[in-house]
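Many introductory courses stop at the sequence. We go one step further.
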Amino acid sequence: MKMWLIRHGETDYNTEHRYQGQIDIPLSEAGRNKLCPSPEKVDRVYVSRLKRTGQTAEILFPDAQQIVVPGLEEMDFGRFDGRTHQELGSDPAYQKWIDSWCTADIPGGENREQFTRRTVKAVTGLIRENVQAGEKHLVIVAHGGTLMAFMEKFGNPKREYYEWQPENGDGWELEVETEGLPEDAPVCHVLGRLSFRI
């Protein structure tokens, strides 16, 4: 099965370098204008509950049904959300998190392990459902962190978390190999990068 994992378009928080996590920030006007429709039509697109993914999917796949999937949301950055690196510079908890390569606990949020477990469960569930239904193409529009967490776990060739970070409106095209493998451990061969930016 072919799978597309796509990061949402640009928001004002992206351009301001603010943590936006699970704050429901819409696409900016500039972000909308940078996106272009997919040349390939699909029947359905899976998105998170945060409007920036649905707005992106609407531009890329205007005729597709959107299905909201719990668990696809970006990492919960807790009290870091809405703030920039500079604004958080004097916060000891933030410095501890940065020193841990962003794996430590976040006050009021979730750590990387919790986030990865949540997002991987959501994406592998969609893979399982679509394979069982005989679907040939799975399209997910989600968040940078969501893609990075899944790809670090299952992307082939293997890369570290931050090496999988796509630009807004970009993503990965994958061939999902599931036959003979545990349902929760698909192998995802990278076919190439995707870009839906003008």
